[in-house]
Amino acid sequence: MLKTGVFAAIGATMLWLGAAAAPASERAVPIPPPATDVPAGQGLQTAILAGGCFWGMEAVFEDIRGVRNVVSGYAGGTRATANYTAVSSETTRHAEAIRVTYDPRQVSYGTLLRVYFSVAHDPTQPNRQGPDRGPSYRSAIFPQDAAQWRVARAYIDQLKAANVFDQPIVTQLESGSFFAAEAHHQDFYRRNPTHPYIVRWDKPKVAAFEAAYPQLAR
To answer: In Å, what is the CA distance from 28 to each residue of 96, 161, 186, 206?
Structure first.
């Protein structure tokens, strides 16, 4: 679904903002840290995560200490279809995703996953987040190596065993290339603080992160 197109119509805008819409995330789900984590290693590392609209995902992860850069983009499909119009058709296999470059000496992969599962998105929603619908909004992790895959798989199993969510976790581990989104999608939260979608859905999410993880927030 094209968000900019939706906001062009008054009636559609009211649908996004109205009381009938699903409530915005206002607090994090308390979850334990991962029992296992990726060793810090040397140099910067990369995580690729999908969980709904990349505007809000980017905003949350840019607020984490130790994160050097976050890029909004598309993961899971081909380069030829890595554009907003094609992905919005829900036929490309892409998911809206973010590429997080981080310093593992300051923040671990497991810690990023903890934020991802507890506040960045709802991992129990199949092919949707908030007002957005379709497989491009699915919950998916794209591990960049075997260590990330093991940690992500173990953490999902750990959270399932702990029954921390009311519904089953639907997050999938996937492989696939990441392609950066169009320039106007980058840093959208910071450049458009009064955009109705940002105000309704993403500002509460960032506030929830900062309230739940003050030690991680910039």
So the answer is: 22, 19, 25, 10
